[in-house]
Design goal:
By secondary structure, the chain is of the alpha+beta class. Helix content is 29%, strand content 37%. The chain has helices at 16-29, 51-63, 96-106, 133-146; strands at residues 6-11, 13-14, 39-46, 68-79, 86-94, 125-130, 150-154, 156-163, 166-174. Strands 2-7-4-5-6 form a five-stranded antiparallel sheet, sandwiched between helices. The protein is globular.
Length: 177
C-alpha cells in the first residue's frame, strides 16, 4: 500500500501574464499559495491503494484522454467538507464538461470506492481561501465585475502527495495527442 495520500491534478498551461496575475492574487489571499501551483484537482486524497496500481490506472486514463482547453470566466464562492473555509474558485465555462468527464473516468475501477458521490464535482482553480465567507464573496463579486478571463490548456496530469506543506510530484502523464 502507498504510505501517502495520493492526489491527481492538472497544471495550467496559460500565458505568463495570466499566471503572474493569478499568483499575485493567490499570494495575497490564499494560505496554500506555497503548497502547490495553480491547478484543477481531478482525484482527491486517495489512501490505501498501492502506489504502482494507482499510477498504472492514472497512466491508462491519461493515454485515453485528449488535451483539454478551458476558459474560466466566473469566480465562484466555494467551500469544502473538511472545515469552515471559504474559497474563491475560478470555474471554467469552456472545458467544464471535459474536466468533469475526466474526473468521472479517474474514479472508475480501482478508485471507485473513493468517489465521494455526496459532494458534486465542480471543476475549479482555487485562488483564495479564508475563514470569512463574506470577504470571499466580495472578492468573487469584485473579480466578476472586472471580468475573469483565464484560458489555456491542460496537456498532462500529475500525481503527488502532500509532505511538509508542499505538494510532491510522483509522476506526470501526458494526455493523448
Amino acid at each position: 500500500m502507498s504510505s501517502h495520500t495520493l492526489y491527481t491534478v492538472a497544471y495550467l498551461e496559460i500565458s505568463e501574464m495570466q499566471m503572474s496575475w493569478m499568483q499575485e492574487f493567490r499570494r495575497k489571499h490564499d494560505p496554500h499559495y506555497t503548497v502547490v501551483d495553480p491547478h484543477f484537482t481531478l482525484a482527491f486524497g486517495v489512501r490505501g491503494v498501492e502506489q504502482g496500481v494507482y499510477l498504472d490506472h492514472i497512466a491508462t486514463i491519461a493515454s485515453e484522454t485528449r488535451p483539454i482547453s478551458f476558459h474560466c470566466k466566473y469566480a465562484m464562492l466555494g467551500a469544502d467538507d473538511i472545515d469552515d473555509t471559504a474559497y474563491v474558485f475560478l470555474v471554467p465555462d469552456e472545458g467544464n464538461s471535459n474536466l468533469s468527464l475526466l474526473h468521472d473516468r479517474l474514479y472508475r475501477g480501482i478508485l471507485e470506492p473513493f468517489h465521494r458521490l455526496e459532494f458534486p464535482y465542480i471543476p475549479h482553480i482555487s485562488i483564495a481561501g479564508m475563514k470569512d465567507f463574506k470577504r470571499a464573496k466580495r472578492l468573487c463579486d469584485e473579480l466578476n465585475s472586472r471580468g475573469v478571463h483565464v484560458h489555456g490548456q491542460l496537456a498532462s496530469i500529475t500525481t503527488g502527495f502532500l509532505k511538509d506543506g508542499k505538494f510532491c510530484h510522483v509522476q506526470s502523464f501526458e494526455l493523448a495527442t
